[in-house]
């Protein structure tokens, strides 16, 4: 009976260890904030040991071609593009040569960082008597937005909320006054009508009475 949880635990541990999910990177960065450029390439054969080198390339909106941006090999990263000196950090797999997460982190995004990023994995699968090379490439189109967009949108929606609340209440008051006038006018009319009706009934019943008296 004790064996079942133990095997489950072991199974879970191996599953957790092998779990690699290729999530797409976010594509909208906020200026003057940090941003993680995600790049994940899972090994097809999780059980086969491998070593990988990750290279990043960048093509800004003004550039004609991709320029080398960053390289990560032997647990060491190097920024290759002067525009990104002191602004890039490795954010991928750590303490291993078998990289599956090749993400990098931009410390302080500027509008000039808008553009296309390409990330490549050069992976060597190390089988017992031969090596197999696989390359994978991911492309990310990054858009940089000012910090205020969200704030401005929420301010605008708040103003719209107040405008609509005040507008609705004003409309309600106008409607109430209109209805009140209409009801009171209708009330007077009804009063006059019922008075006339009362008199009519009264005179009718008088006639009836007269009729009855005549019949007698
Ligand atoms: C990011 O860069 C801007 C402009 O270059 C600067 O004003 C700001 O202080 C920097 N922020 C950080 C956190 O380094
Ligand atoms: C962005 O690029 C323009 C033109 O290349 C340059 O003049 C400007 O200083 C750059 N801005 C930043 C924050 O790097
Ligand atoms: C992977 O990329 C490297 C460097 O660009 C190249 O030398 C190698 O031939 C490529 N391998 C495959 C299998 O495409």
TrEMBL record:
Entry annotated with the keyword Signal: yes
Region forming the signal peptide: 1-18
Keyword Lipoprotein (UniProt): no
GO CC entries: voltage-gated sodium channel complex
Entries under InterPro entries matching the protein: Ig-like_dom, Ig-like_dom_sf, Ig-like_fold, Ig_V-set, Na_channel_b1/b3
Transmembrane segments: 159-180
GO annotation, biological process: cardiac muscle cell action potential involved in contraction; regulation of heart rate by cardiac conduction
Ig-like domain boundaries: 5-135
Cellular localization per UniProt: Cell membrane
Cross-referenced Gene3D superfamilies: Immunoglobulins
Taxonomic superkingdom: Eukaryota
Listed Pfam families: V-set
Keywords linked to the UniProt accession: Cell membrane, Disulfide bond, Glycoprotein, Immunoglobulin domain, Ion channel, Ion transport, Membrane, Signal, Sodium, Sodium channel, Sodium transport, Transmembrane, Transmembrane helix, Transport, Voltage-gated channel
Protein family according to the UniProt entry: Belongs to the sodium channel auxiliary subunit SCN3B (TC 8.A.17) family.
Self-association state and partner proteins as the record states: A voltage-gated sodium (Nav) channel consists of an ion-conducting pore-forming alpha subunit functional on its own that is regulated by one or more beta subunits. Forms homodimers and homotrimers. SCN3B is non-covalently associated with alpha subunits and induces the formation of alpha subunit oligomers, including trimers. Interacts with SCN5A/Nav1.5; regulatory subunit of SCN5A/Nav1.5. Interacts with SCN7A/Nav2.1; probable regulatory subunit of SCN7A/Nav2.1. Interacts with SCN10A; regulatory subunit of SCN10A/Nav1.8.
Protein name as it appears in the record: Sodium channel regulatory subunit beta-3
Organism: Cyprinodon variegatus (Sheepshead minnow)
